[in-house]
């Protein structure tokens, strides 16, 4: 039954960003392990990456592109099928790491790959109702398929972020949307299950669920006001659960499928799939459609741009950038589906203890304490009530710079579980004069060198007692997993929201590591490679 198109208040797209994990694997390698075949490649997270770290990276890129500081946001709307904590402070962890005001609104949508669209629609409605002026929408996923399942050869990972605001003067616009649903079980994960299950009958899902449901929302979108005279937009980005459904749908409606290349190189990224595929449309004026599916729900959005949307071209470059190649065993280890039989090394303090209550804010925000008398920056502030340089007690909490230079380092070549080797540990002289000691990323281990420029990226240090523990690691710019510099920055420049952190000329010796939390390895535990000036 056809319905009259509903009126939707347009909102503006101010800037966009993306993030992709640091590893790639050929789907054929996975399939060979199960005597099957597959095509394309998949973007897969390393052991220290997850849906939150991807969302963080995409969000920073979008905010930088839009010229919006995190503290100017009125709300964070995050959609992810599988948040880091099934119940817990996932949303506030991300908001804190981004530097968003603690009084800002927003919410977390989860439970299906439609969650990214749910987040977008929620922010759209909040803007239309006047509850927020500027909103950050981020969709991210790093799903865990079952080994040997059909979905294992199609499941990728990634994140996309949109900064939304008033439509007046905005380079892009969300104009209209339509949703339809069907009470069916598609891909799911029940209570107590670790991996996501595939559809029971692939042909049944295609013929009776996906194709008719998505065709209905596509048809209604084509009847929307301003939809090119009833024919609909030419360019469509369509979420594709198996790499074949979106092309079939595009042919049936006569659409130009612009998301096929992203799906072919990254796989089905889940919640951000429709948003990632639309990046190419935002590099030039014109209208386009985004279609999301998940959990028996489909939503189509009519969008457009009057000029290039800031961040879109950089996003395309990042989506097509080369990455490190992963083996199938490495992929299984990163997903905790291949686990060492050794006894894991527990953290010294539980993540819910007083030490984390006091220190988690400075870990997620990466803060130090600058002495008002001598300028020395002590890290972390919670264990330095007095200046480590002169002993003074006039201290000001500051955000640390997010880039610096490797002063010295060591590489741990063997590590007990849950750590993975090789694991660098480096002393970094930050651009603001602070000195910190942090873990590095594994992909930098083979050729890390003294004097290397690095940026600090949010990563998951481990999972302790079922709780993910986040902190910053040092990564050389080519391996930033989505943190792309803006055209106005050098590869070592600080993000805009770190401006004002003045360098101190008095920082000379290494302070205690700000993100120890029981995870910094003892040098006696491993065979090491390192150097110093």
Placed side by side, the strands forming the largest sheet appear as 5-4-6-7-1-8-12-11-9-10
End-to-end CA span: 74 Å
CATH third-level topology of the largest domain: Peroxisomal Thiolase, Chain A, domain 1
Mean pLDDT: 87
CATH H level, superfamily name of the largest domain: Thiolase/Chalcone synthase
Q: Major sheet: size, sense and barrel closure?
A: 10 strands, mixed
Kindly provide the name of the CATH class of the largest domain: Alpha Beta
Number of helices: 11
> Count the strands?
22
**What portion of residues is helical?**
10-25%
Detail the poorly predicted runs: 479-533
Structural class: alpha+beta
The amount of beta strand, in percent, is 25-35%
Structural domains: how many: 2
- Rg (C-alpha, Å): 23 Å
Structure description:
There is one protein chain. The chain is of the alpha+beta class and 533 residues long. It has 2 domains: 11-334, Thiolase/Chalcone synthase (Peroxisomal Thiolase, Chain A, domain 1), CATH 3.40.47.10; 354-528, OB fold (Dihydrolipoamide Acetyltransferase, E2P). Helices cover 21% and strands 26% of the residues. The chain is built from 11 helices and 22 strands. A 10-stranded mixed beta sheet has the order 5-4-6-7-1-8-12-11-9-10, sandwiched between helices. Strands 17, 18, 19, 20, 21 and 22 form a 6-stranded antiparallel beta sheet that branches. A hairpin with a 4-residue loop joins strand 18 and strand 19. The chain is globular. Residues 479-533 have low confidence and may be disordered.
